[in-house]
Design a protein that fits this description.
The chain is an alpha/beta fold. The protein has four domains: 66 residues, no CATH class; 147 residues, Rossmann fold (3-Layer(aba) Sandwich), CATH 3.40.50; 80 residues, Serine Threonine Protein Phosphatase 5, Tetratricopeptide repeat (Alpha Horseshoe), CATH 1.25.40; 113 residues, Serine Threonine Protein Phosphatase 5, Tetratricopeptide repeat.
Length: 447
């Protein structure tokens, strides 16, 4: 009863009538105690100034209550909840069953220092009808995820609660297109409309909160991964599939099941990223551990097999094993072509020059998005190797790439001439190609 009374005051406090009533109550209060106060403050002007100051405090408080929005704390991921309840009883239930369960899930798993739940007042939540309203909110609150909708109780044969939810992701430093894609996934995982009997209200709200929490975990992890923080992403995505499976909603709808399955593939990619990080830090045991886990989660992980080929070559010095890993990567490459660069390099390394040149011809004729990054990384990788090994054919390889892929004629000239200076008689096929390329390059450079 006490909670109902307090909530009733809160729900009406933003109205003009409440402002006027408050001003009137302040006047009545000070009228009643004026004689007592005059004993200590005999000057009427001082007393009036004090009374006016008290009125001003009330007016400022009322304005803040009516128009003020909470702010997301710095370094926190803000989940803004703006669910409008038609009646006080529904709002109390929403707070006690839905929001408390959501908070419990976040704190139980140790994400309280990462995610902040920001609950809008009921009269502010009522204004949120769609994406445009949320867009205007983001500058005030600076949240990342916005969950809005309404809860109402209706007769549908018997008394039922109807919970309608919608969502939007506004996550920086991710670009707008990626943010929209995240919003799409967020909306897909949300229980768009749920109805449950009044008898099962606790269970119904608990399920709804669990699904929202899992949605936030999925999207937050994905946003962290795309922002360059795979460690946080792994923390959020580990066991996510199992958590979806153990939710009370059985069977899971197709769209949620798709998100659940995709989370496993994303987790695999995140572990590949962390493996790569540890490799750069020369922590080989951890690099291998994370890569093994990534391929266990998704044996079809193209990036994972490419990275394994590097480990096979650089760590284990096993070219045959590296070629096998590249063969696996080729199966899952889609339109990507990095695997061919890796294979061509190994052919050059092994002295299988005809096969290497065959790959070079195909590399020259094809292209894919981000290939310029591959070319740069391949060049740096080979230059690092050339500091410690005598493999002149690698100069031919990077000279070819600078000529045919980067169109960097001066650099290709340097590399190809270096190759010819150091090449031996086993490299005649490459010498012929290098000579022909140099003629073309010098002609284009008019030298």
């Amino acid at each position: 009863m006490e909670e109902f009374f307090i909530k009733n005051i809160q729900n009406n406090l933003h109205k003009v009538l409440a402002l006027i009533s408050g001003i009137g109550l302040v006047i009545i209060f000070f009228s009643l105690v004026d004689n007592f106060i005059s004993i200590f403050v005999p000057q009427i002007y001082y007393r009036l100034a004090g009374y006016l100051f008290a009125e001003a405090i009330w007016v400022v408080y009322w304005l803040i209550y009516k128009y003020g929005y909470p702010k997301n704390r710095r370094n926190k991921i803000g989940l803004v909840v703006a669910i409008y309840a038609e009646k006080i009883t529904e709002e109390i239930i929403l707070k006690n069953d839905f929001i408390k369960q959501l908070q419990k899930s976040i704190y139980d798993e140790g994400f309280g220092n990462l995610i902040q739940i920001i609950v809008l007042k009921n009269h502010l939540s009522e204004k949120i009808k769609g994406v445009d309203d949320v867009q205007s909110l983001k500058k005030r609150i600076k949240g990342h995820y916005y969950l809005w909708g309404n809860i109402k109780k209706r007769k549908d044969g018997e008394e039922k609660y109807f919970l309608n939810l919608d969502g939007l992701v506004i996550h920086r430093p991710i670009n707008v297109n990626v943010s929209r894609a995240l919003s799409t996934d967020f909306i897909k995982t949300l229980p768009k409309e749920i109805s449950f009997q009044e008898t099962f209200q606790l269970r119904g709200f608990k399920f709804s909160a669990e699904i929202v929490y899992l949605s936030v975990k999925y999207i937050t992890g994905l946003a962290a991964y795309l922002s360059g923080d795979p460690f946080t992403a792994i923390k959020l995505h580990t066991n996510l599939k199992e958590e979806f499976n153990k939710s009370e909603f059985k069977p899971l709808p197709d769209h949620i099941r798709n998100i659940r399955d995709r989370a496993v593939l994303i987790l695999s990619n995140e572990k590949v990223s962390v493996s790569r990080y540890y490799f750069r830090q020369s922590d080989i045991p951890k690099a291998k551990q994370y890569l093994t886990e990534a391929l266990q989660l998704n044996p079809n992980n193209y990036s994972g097999w490419l990275l394994k080929a590097i480990y096979d070559f650089k760590i284990d010095s096993n070219v045959s094993k590296s070629l096998e890993s590249i063969k696996r990567a080729k199966r899952y490459c889609g339109s990507r072509g990095e695997w061919r660069y890796s294979r061509a390099f190994l052919f050059f390394w092994e002295g299988r020059f005809s096969e290497a040149l065959s790959d070079c011809i195909k590399i020259a004729k094809s292209s894919y998005i981000g290939e310029d990054i591959t070319v740069y990384e391949v060049e740096q990788f080979n230059l690092d190797l050339l500091k410690t090994v005598n493999k002149p054919q690698l100069y031919f390889w990077i000279g070819f790439l600078n000529y045919r892929k980067s169109s960097n004629l001066p650099q290709s000239l340097v590399y190809l001439e270096k190759f010819l200076e150091q090449a031996d008689n086993t490299m005649d096929i490459l010498k012929q190609k290098a000579g022909a390329y140099l003629v073309e390059i010098k002609k284009q450079m008019t030298i």
